[in-house]
Amino acid sequence: MSCEYVQERISPLLDHQVAPEERETVLAHMASCRACSAHYDSMQNLRSALLIMDAPPMPASLHQKLRVLASHEQTRRVSRLTMAARMNHWNQRLHLAFDNIMRPFGLPVASGLLSAVLLFALLAPSLSFARRGSDYGPTGFSTTPQLDSMVGGVPDIPQIEEPDSFGSNYETVLELKISPEGKVWDWTVVQGSQDLTLDLKEMILFSRFTPATAFGRPTWGTVHILYKHAYFIRG
Amino acid sequence: MATSILDLSGDRSAESAADSEDFRLVESLRCGEERAYEELLQRFQQPVYALALRLLDDPSNASDVVQEVFLKVFRNVASFRGQSTLKTWIYRITVNEAHNARRWFFRHRRREVELDTGPDDTRNWKENIPDGSRSPFDQAFGREQHVMVEAALEKINPIFREAVVLRDISDLSYEEIAEILGVSLGTVKSRILRGREALREQLAGSLKPRPALRLVPKTAE
């Protein structure tokens, strides 16, 4: 039996993978051969060193990742067991996806809306419709003619109303066309007698109006004068 | 001279108990029981990581492989028929994934330089062997030997290395190794023999049996 043959049998011999009769032969050879015996010893030392190798410690991050993975897979498997579970799973996933998409927009949208409301509240007082000192009214709006002064037999300060229709309560309804200069340019009797009283004629001739405006510019406008016991102005 | 395989594993009852345990675990996994997932991780995460690390020599690659392995296990547990043990099945997936990772590494990442190292990776795992039960001498001796063997393992052919690791470190039988690697018993024997011989040559006399440390008490004069 050659040393080469015996040395090839040493590895399986350590693993008990050699038949008993062959094992005896190999062991007998090693007892008489120093080289094969040394080979056996070194192989046994190697095997002992390998057997007592410590397991490398697993990184904590990997442990966490595996737990997350297991959790996801468990949820996935449970969701596929029944149709109801599957539908519920997809519903939850859609809900989660929607939530994940909308969540980043939630804060910016809410803060933007709040800022807009606050800004509007701050600026609102400056957006008044009151006429300024110049001829130019507030831009971006159109206004109707306003009565400045009225002459004639008007007993009290004219009351301005917003009737839905002229109705039969009024004896006379006049429509005045007001020029950009604030003077009565033309008039027509909408309701009542065509023969106007002297008071009404004086009122038409000498009353002064703030002209109508469009985008801050004076323009043509009309007013309705409602007459019964007093004059009522309706723009 | 004709040789025959001796079956020295012996304990059939232990095997059947392990099989029934595997069967119960697999059934629980199929039903999606949370505890089963936890149990599977507890049983196999450490050995799978150790095996992957020794086959790849790179902790980050080994971590990726371990995740891939468990993903495949979780996804394919329904198709596990019990023709092999659960351990053998998982180890086979690990070896295959390690093969794939090694191939991918040689194609793509050989020239990459790792910049991002987490707190876990700042120390080499070879330098971090927690064992509070051993004496400082044993620890120092074990560490030195450990580092030498690991370095030698890295240098030998990966084909032989995986056979040696499965046999001598993971302590699997020849039959299990043949099943995991998908080769015949004769090939397993041959690979283990060649792997051990290659390791022995690499270590070349640096491995010695642990010297007995004797402490002789002396009284103060």
Write a structural description:
The complex is a heterodimer of chains A (235) and B (221). With 235 residues, chain A is α+β, with helices and mostly antiparallel strands. Chain A has 6 helices and 10 strands, in the order H-H-H-H-H-E-E-E-E-E-H-E-E-E-E-E. Chain A has helices spanning 3-14, 20-32, 34-51, 60-79, 83-123, 198-206; strands at 142-143, 146-149, 159-160, 172-178, 184-191, 208-210, 212-214, 217-219, 221-227, 231-234. In chain A, helix 1 (3-14) packs across helix 2 (20-32) and helix 2 packs across helix 3. Helix content of chain B is 65%, strand content 0%. Chain B has 8 helices and no strands. The longest helix of chain B has 24 residues, at 86-109. At the A-B interface, helix 1, helix 2, helix 3 and helix 4 of A face helix 2, helix 3, helix 5, helix 6 and helix 8 of B.
Overview in brief:
The complex is a heterodimer of chains A (235) and B (221). With 235 residues, chain A is α+β, with helices and mostly antiparallel strands.
